[in-house]
Amino acid sequence: MKKFYFLSSCNTCQRILDHLDLGAEFELQDIKKTPISSDELEQLKEISGSYEALFSKRAKLYKDLGLKDKSLDEDGYKNYILEHYTFLKRPVLVLNGQLFVGNSSKVINSAKTAILNEK
């Protein structure tokens, strides 16, 4: 599977999308227009090992809801991600069983290398 989950209104996601130069074989999913499904999230969790690894603690809503003061379990992370797109750490690139989550330069450079090795 080759898929890129992103937010089209996010400048960082757009910059990374341009940098990665994904081919036509990649499915692009704007998570605001097409929210991530429970099945898709489950697939991502299987690769990442946890919902927490997919959860964005930088989201404004995270602070607004006071979640930083609460102890969330895996079900909590899952439910919040499914409830609102802003809780999915982004972008997320799935490349044939490999998962690249977030926008750190290390993650993006690893994703770029993996994409180039696929060609």
Q: Would you write up a description of this structure?
A:
By secondary structure, this protein is an alpha+beta fold. It has one domain (2-118): 3-Layer(aba) Sandwich (Glutaredoxin). The protein is built from 5 helices and 4 strands. Strands 2-1-3-4 form a 4-stranded mixed sheet, sandwiched between helices. The relative contact order is 0.21.
Q: Strand order across the biggest sheet?
A: 2-1-3-4
The H-level CATH homologous superfamily, spelled out, is: Glutaredoxin
The helix/strand class is alpha+beta
Topology as a string of helices (H) and strands (E)? EHEHHHEEH
Helix content: 40-55%
What CATH architecture label applies? 3-Layer(aba) Sandwich
Key structural traits:
119 residues; Glutaredoxin; four-stranded mixed sheet
Quick summary:
This protein is α+β, with helices and mostly antiparallel strands. 42% of the residues lie in helices and 14% in strands. The protein has one domain: Glutaredoxin.
Strand and helix layout:
Blueprint: E1 2-6, H1 11-20, E2 27-30, H2 38-48, H3 60-64, H4 74-83, E3 92-95, E4 98-101, H5 105-118
Parallel strand pairs: 1-2
Antiparallel strand pairs: 1-3, 3-4
